[in-house]
């Protein structure tokens, strides 16, 4: 339980901090995206890559292990591109606080959406799985493209103030946020009402010998919550892939993993997701979140 | 001190510095929250 709910002073302080943070975010959001990327984005790249070397050893280690066929010069080039992408992503996320729906719709397009709509016509719910690839925060525009409810399954942040900010960004265009620990109950309750639930499923799940896969040349524990949920709710499982397009645009591509989750073998869905994500990463490695400690214990 | 505070550049620089610190703190927080759900 959030202690601020019972302590009015704490709640007041949290609200003040939220407004205090919103102010610069709103002001930065007023800058055109290109200008913001050209100034703040480039400064951030300079600070994170050249000055502070933010998580540089983690990035290099992850890249070297995941892409063993690349030379050191190529790894360095990818790491530079990664820092450029990370800086641009932060600017884009700040911009999402105030961007207009029409402007965002120009930036994000959908591909193969017909498949999803067809399952919707058949009254089937969809579970969309993706990795920390591209700018996943751009998915908040999905509800404005689709005729059904879109839920994002998320892990609440430790900071209530930043949690509120991110919640605002994610729900601006109609996305529903469902805490991960309530997802199963919520989806079972909503059974019979077709909707899409989005999972980011490539994070470190803790040690679990059952769900170890070979992912990016390493033995990797994968999160299998999406698989369990899709079996429990008999949902169609799709893989969501973000592709960078010219002029800072992104294309969201849907591809089918299975429409018969209950007939799949153990871990087949998770394995299929891991394979698809691996292909996506190998195609354009710089857009994956290399700075997280993905293989910290495994 | 009066000479310093009477100079408009003092205030301009002060505001710019505060704004920069705010933006840096915000960005540091954003970096933290990008990584937090992946590493818990």
Kindly describe this structure.
With 298 residues, chain A is α/β, with parallel strands linked by helices. In chain A, 46% of the residues lie in helices and 18% in strands. Chain A has helices spanning 8-30, 33-51, 56-66, 72-96, 101-107, 113-121, 160-171, 183-189, 225-233, 268-283; strands at 108-111, 126-130, 149-154, 176-179, 195-200, 212-215, 218-221, 236-245, 249-258. Chain A has a seven-stranded mixed beta sheet with strand order 1-9-8-2-5-3-4, with helices on both faces. Chain A is globular, with a radius of gyration of 20 Å. Chain A starts with 7 loop residues before the first helix and ends in a 15-residue tail after the last helix. The N and C termini of chain B lie far apart (50 Å). Chain B contains two helices and no strands. The mean pLDDT of chain B is 83. Chain B is mainly alpha-helical. Chain A binds chain B through residues 21, 24-25, 28, 40, 44, 54, 89-90, 93-94, 132, 154-155, 157-159, 162, 166, 200, 203-204, 289, 291-294, 296, and chain B through 19, 22-23, 26-27, 29-40.
């Amino acid at each position: 339980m959030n202690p601020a709910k019972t302590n009015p002073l704490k709640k007041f302080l949290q609200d003040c901090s939220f407004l205090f943070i919103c102010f610069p975010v709103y002001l930065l959001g007023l800058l055109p995206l290109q200008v913001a990327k050209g100034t703040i984005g480039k400064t951030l790249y300079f600070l994170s890559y050249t000055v502070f070397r933010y998580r540089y050893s983690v990035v290099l280690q992850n890249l070297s292990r995941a892409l063993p066929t690349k030379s050191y010069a190529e790894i360095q080039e990818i790491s530079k591109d990664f820092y450029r992408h990370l800086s641009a992503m932060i600017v884009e996320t700040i911009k999402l606080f105030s961007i207009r729906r029409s402007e965002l719709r120009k930036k994000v397009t959908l591909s193969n959406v017909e498949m999803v709509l067809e399952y919707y016509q058949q009254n089937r719910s969809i579970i969309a799985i993706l990795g920390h690839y591209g700018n996943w925060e751009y998915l908040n525009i999905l509800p404005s493209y689709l005729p059904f409810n879109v839920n994002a399954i998320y892990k609440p942040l430790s900071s209530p103030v930043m949690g509120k900010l991110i919640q605002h960004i994610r729900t601006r265009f109609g996305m529903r946020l469902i805490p991960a620990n309530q997802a199963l109950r919520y989806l079972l309750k909503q059974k019979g009402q077709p909707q899409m639930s989005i999972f980011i499923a490539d994070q470190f799940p803790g040690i679990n010998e059952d769900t170890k896969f070979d992912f990016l040349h390493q033995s990797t524990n994968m999160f299998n919550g999406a698989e369990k949920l899709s079996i429990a709710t008999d949902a169609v499982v799709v893989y969501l892939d973000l592709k960078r397009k010219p002029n800072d645009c992104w294309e969201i591509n849907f591809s089918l993993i299975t429409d018969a989750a209950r007939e799949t073998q153990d871990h087949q869905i998770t394995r299929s997701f891991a394979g698809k994500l691996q292909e996506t990463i190998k195609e354009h490695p710089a857009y994956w979140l290399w700075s997280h400690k993905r293989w910290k214990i495994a | 001190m009066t000479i310093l505070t009477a100079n408009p550049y003092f205030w301009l620089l002060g505001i710019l510095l505060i704004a920069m610190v705010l933006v840096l703190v915000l960005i540091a927080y954003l970096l933290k929250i990008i990584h937090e759900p992946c590493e818990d």
